[in-house]
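Revision sheet: structure tokens.
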Amino acid sequence: LGCAHFDQYDNVFLQVRGTKRMLIFDPRSGARSLYPFPVHHPYDQRARVDLEAPDENAFPRVRALRQAGVEAVLSGGEALFLPSHW
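Predicted:
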């Protein structure tokens, strides 16, 4: 997993070769639990939470993400449409 983030525009992610694992969160339910950086911060489209090793003491709302995310695994030649802010 890479750094959790969102994009401001709709995207089509195309996996050319190999595989890619993504955890996708509905922005209405998961965004607050990802502890995004403040608006106008250089990383304001990224989460402060490390999803591979979440610090539940520093970020207690991260516990709510256990049930909220959807996992997508793409293989070469597959595409995934991601609406803005997902």
